[in-house]
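Q: Okay, next protein. This is Copper-binding protein from Pontibacterium sinense. I've checked the sequence twice, so it should be correct. Can you predict the 3D structure?
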Amino acid sequence: MRLLKPLMIAGFAGLMAVTSVAQAAGDLTRRPQKLPDLVMGSDESDYFMSQKEYQLETGKSYKLAIISNGQKEYAMQAPEFFSSIFLRKVEAGGMEIKAVSLTELEFEDASEAEIYFVPVKTGEFEFEMEGLEGKGMVGVFKVK
């Protein structure tokens, strides 16, 4: 036990040093930061996408409105991004949906969904409209 106690203290001190470095910059007590809307389709082009890049930080709360103008069916996919966030809720069609994760957001007509989330992992995560990647409907979430 005499040898084990110094090892336990050293291990605890090492753990504390690691956790103090790995703190997020965000403050979850504040309202979510509204990101620029992601609008799909326009009067000029079915393949218009208003945003191609979002800059985010871990630990900050965000709200993103995703809007389809109804020109086409759009299926937003971002599997790596969706698995690297804490999903707080999705609001769509007068409903509030609380789920653990997302796979895809599909818009069959003119509609809107808002996702409320907190990024928990850094990196660059692509998003795309399924089947429309060749038409330029791709973007990236950059998380610091």
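A: Here is a summary of the prediction. The two ends are 43 Å apart (CA to CA). The chain has a mean pLDDT of 85.
Q: Noted. On to the next one.
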